[in-house]
Amino acid sequence: MTTLSAKDKEVVKAFWAKVSGKGEEIGTDAVARMLTVYPQTKTYFSHWKDQSPSSPSVRKHGITVMAGVGDAVTKIDDLKGGLVSLSELHAFTLRVDPANFKILSHNILVVMAIMFPKAFTPEVHVAMDKFLAALSLALAEKYR
């Protein structure tokens, strides 16, 4: 599993404190971007009537995703244990290919960099990338 140092965790928590108020926007844009740039991800959302970037379904899922990210920040010391129910949901009920967690993580990073260019320093970039990679691995845990 990706190892987060004490400094990484500190940086993630501090950055999250700055950006969490915009979680809805971050999530909506990240999900919309994922569906546009990686159209193969649309297969998991075929039940949505509208998959366009401005659709209510994209917005709702973006909010859900970022609520999960926020929850993960609070469980940063034990992501695997703290996210077991989300891992089970994605593995057994939703049956999402875990490669998609990395795709969405990438899009979250891109959106954060665009929305917070001054705060998204190289140090923040590295820490958030490591955190989202660790989060992706924790979500993929029940696939093994």
Task: Describe it.
67% of the residues lie in helices and 0% in strands. The chain has helices at 6-19, 23-37, 56-74, 79-82, 84-93, 99-115, 122-139. It has 7 helices and no strands. It has 144 residues and is an all-alpha fold. The longest helix has 19 residues, at 56-74.
Per DSSP E runs of 2 or more residues, the count of β-strands stands at: 0
What is the number of helical segments per DSSP (H or I, 4+ residues)? 7
Amino-to-carboxy terminus distance: 13 Å
Topology pattern, helix = H, strand = E: HHHHHHH
What is the chains' assembly state?
single chain
Structural class: mainly alpha
State the gist of this model.
With 144 residues, this protein is an all-alpha fold. It is built from seven helices and no strands.
Defining traits:
single chain; 144 residues; mainly alpha; 7 helices; 67% helix; 0% strand
Helix and strand layout, with pairings?
Blueprint: H1 6-19, H2 23-37, H3 56-74, H4 79-82, H5 84-93, H6 99-115, H7 122-139
Helix pairs in contact: 1-7, 2-3, 2-6, 6-7
